[in-house]
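Milestone 3.1: sequence recovery, worked example.
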């Protein structure tokens, strides 16, 4: 079967850019919010009806009311597109008020993934999310995916926030994602967030 979707992450809406020159700060903040419109346009242009956001949609668990409402409005206005939002380390589920208010302000096409359990997002397509309950979870949150039961023949898409390699300073290495998680959990695709730059990953051997 063919299933089209957009995978993105780490929008960090509400980031203040306090270290930047004042004349540049406003433009950077505005550019952050324009990303939602660009994602919606990309989805429309490619025939994708779903956008998967793999964590850190917001920069903190307490963004301003304006930032939160702008995001809810932009996503809701994207006709024909469903947004699947995974809480990451910056906007984890400990920010109960953020997600409670956001869900009230957003439309039925916007989905906050609170539970580590399969979700059917389209006929024959199962999303396996690993939301962060707190900033430093202390273990690999994707482990449950290995034993997750889904209907026979369904596409299995994992959605997680974290690294399969140590990102260095301030990285919670105890939460490293198993590099072979996609294979062990029989995933057709593993959508990851928390990667703030390009990375070349390869396996040794032929091919």
């Amino acid at each position: 079967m063919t299933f089209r979707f957009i995978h993105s992450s780490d929008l960090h809406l509400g980031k203040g850019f306090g270290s930047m020159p004042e004349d540049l700060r406003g433009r950077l903040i505005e550019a952050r919010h324009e990303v939602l419109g660009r994602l919606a346009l990309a989805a429309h242009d490619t025939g994708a009806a779903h956008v998967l956001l793999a964590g850190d949609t917001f920069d903190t668990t307490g963004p301003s009311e304006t930032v939160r409402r702008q995001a809810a409005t932009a996503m809701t206005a994207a006709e024909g597109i469903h947004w699947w939002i995974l809480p990451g380390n910056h906007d984890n589920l400990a920010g109960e008020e953020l997600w409670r208010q956001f869900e009230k302000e957003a439309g039925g096409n916007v989905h906050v993934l609170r539970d580590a359990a399969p979700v059917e997002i389209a006929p024959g397509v199962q999303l396996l999310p690993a939301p962060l309950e707190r900033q430093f979870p202390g273990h690999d949150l994707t482990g449950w995916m290995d034993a997750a039961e889904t209907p026979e023949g369904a596409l299995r898409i994992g959605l997680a926030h974290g690294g399969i390699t140590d990102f260095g300073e301030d990285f919670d290495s105890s939460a490293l994602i198993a590099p072979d998680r996609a294979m062990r959990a029989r995933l057709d695709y593993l959508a990851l967030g928390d990667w703030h730059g390009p990375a070349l990953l390869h396996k040794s051997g032929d091919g």
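The chain has one domain: 6-193. The chain is about 25% helix and 15% strand.
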